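Good morning,

Both structures are done.
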Amino acid sequence: MKNLIFFFLLLALGTQAQPIHFKSVLVDTHNDCITACIEKKVSLDQDLRGINHSDLTRFKQGGVDYQLFSIWCDGEKVNPYAWAMREMDTLDAVAKRNPDKIVVGKTWKEIEKALKQHKMVAQYGVEGGHMIEDDIRKLDTFYNRGVRYMTLTWNNSPSWASSHADEKNPKYTGPRGLTEFGKQIVHRMNELGIIVDVSHVGETTFWDAIKTTTKPVIASHSNAYSICPVSRNLKDEQIIAIGKNGGVICLNFFSGFVDSNFSKKDAAFRKAHVAEIDSLLATGIQREYAFTMVSEKYPAESENIKPDLELLMNHFDHIVKLIGVDHVGLGSDFDGINSAPKELKTVLDYPAFTKALIARGYSNKDIRKVLGGNFLRVYRMNNPN
């Protein structure tokens, strides 16, 4: 009897979630599907079920109205700026082929028009300051292409900022925090309207960026360190600082940033399949995608080590408790991760997150803020035009 009651409760919540979910403007600040499409030699406007977490049709079906597409390569890639141009060319071509479905929005008027016409707004987020190749002028080119945030570092460090990985690496000999040139880059980003993203940065860089920026920042795909203590997540004092700055923390769906027990389970999985991973690496595929492709090959094993959505919601509640519901959003990291909570398998599953918000008592007003309103506020504060 209890199981039956629980089933009907879930059914009622799902029905209740549909209207608020699809009437809200849903913004996801981080999706790596452009890189995934290039690595897997497919196109976003194809049916990519079973291949990617995302494709153009499923974005619409999942209720995504506004997607910031990650422009990324790892620190080993030669000519990262040229790679960034290739990635943006790739999505621009998709938008050109599908003008009735997706628009690369560069002004607020273009964004509003696209949303009214029920087209998906696309913009770019450059994931790693190494992609400007120490040339501040490249920020202007990025902005003109539709880049609206830049993550100051990825796991590697450019010459002007230190990453979370390098700051804990005893062999790292580069600068800690922002150099004077790094501060110039932040100022130029503020002037242009490129939002400063503090995901991936080291703590020293984080505090330098908070002191330097004149505009609200985002953490495009990060969670709470106190629940899952990995260096990619934000400590409570950092969360509070982002709240005071007026910024937004966008939740990352990656199991390793949600569940503190996941890394050991994932390491065992990779060890069991190391020969296949090495074989993929030998073909030239970037390491992150070799892991992802092997995980997709063994879905039962991958599913067994994933956390439940409830644990991600604990991160959400923790951040809200510290700085309020006005400072949380979504940055899934879909197509850049090999594991997410069991209920969030692809972009089709965003309604499950909305259902979880309803179950935890959040109002429709608060849900609209979280799904997109909070990011839109920060966007307008960085880009008034």
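Second structure follows.
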Amino acid sequence: MTTYVILCRVSPEAFADAKEFKQLAAKVSEKIKSECPKVVWKDSFALMGRFDVIDIIESDDLEEVEKAAMIIRAYGHSTTETLVATPWKDFLDML
């Protein structure tokens, strides 16, 4: 499976109270689980910098990865940047 990193920046208008973010995150997660079954969520991390969240996913279906990113944008009120992540050892072996 191919690994992808989705970097997310949440819109300031996405929620009024920080506690509402939990509900927003759950809604987005459920939508992706139901509409993108070929996307395997590996982990998510909160960030302190240019991006708010980094999601690590795996999939062999690029269309579902793209759909998951669009769900994050639409339902999560976020901008995203999706990157292919090659394991370091595989990258070095390729050289």
